Amino acid sequence: MKHSIKTQSPGSRGVTLLEMTVVILLILSLIGIGTFSAAKIGEWKLGRKAGEELRAVHAAQRLFLADNPTTPVSSITADDLLPYMQGNPSALPTVESLDGTTLTIKVDVNPPVVDAGGGAAYDPSGSSSDSLWDIGK
After folding, report:
1. The whole model's pTM is what?
2. Quick one: DSSP state of residue 16?
């Protein structure tokens, strides 16, 4: 019985330059997608924290109004709400904007909103009912 041995040419086992380029491009694409996703997760976390702070202030506002039913909402101050906040904080919570600016919560409106200055509400999500930068409806 005769056995034949097959031999391969010297360059047939290696990786071609084209294959390496494709793999490198794929890895770079995945890194880019991961970086973009990480940035969006950070924005979502800021929005979630802002929503939680607004809900806490809104709960304090409702408790204050339950104890003081004749007080108009437009005359409520942060000092009025502090005794009604959980944990007995020394100041109302603040919120960080997407660009890192510290913003205050406007308590003389119902529901409370993040104050962007000039009487405007700060809500980069573009929705007043997503419960991120607002307390939702």
Report:
1. 0.70
2. P
Bridge-partner residues for 103, per DSSP?
95
DSSP-derived 3-state class of residue 17: helix
Distance CA 56, CA 15 (A): 60
Mean pLDDT across the stretch 18-34? 91
Nearest Cα residue to 92 out of 134, 122, 58, 47? 58
CA-based end-to-end distance of the chain: 86
Residue 86 C-alpha from the chain's centroid: 23
Q: CB burial class (10 A; 0-12, 13-18, 19+) of residue 135?
A: buried
Q: What is the pLDDT of residue 127?
A: 78
120 forms bridges with which residues in the sheet?
Answer: 117
Q: Is the pLDDT of residue 124 over 90?
A: no
Nearest-angstrom CA–CA distance, 20 and 111: 57
What is the C-alpha separation between 135 and 114, in angstroms, rounded?
A: 10
* 111 cis-preceded (ω within 30 degrees of 0): yes
Which residue has 């307390």 as its token pair? 135
2 secondary structure, DSSP code: -
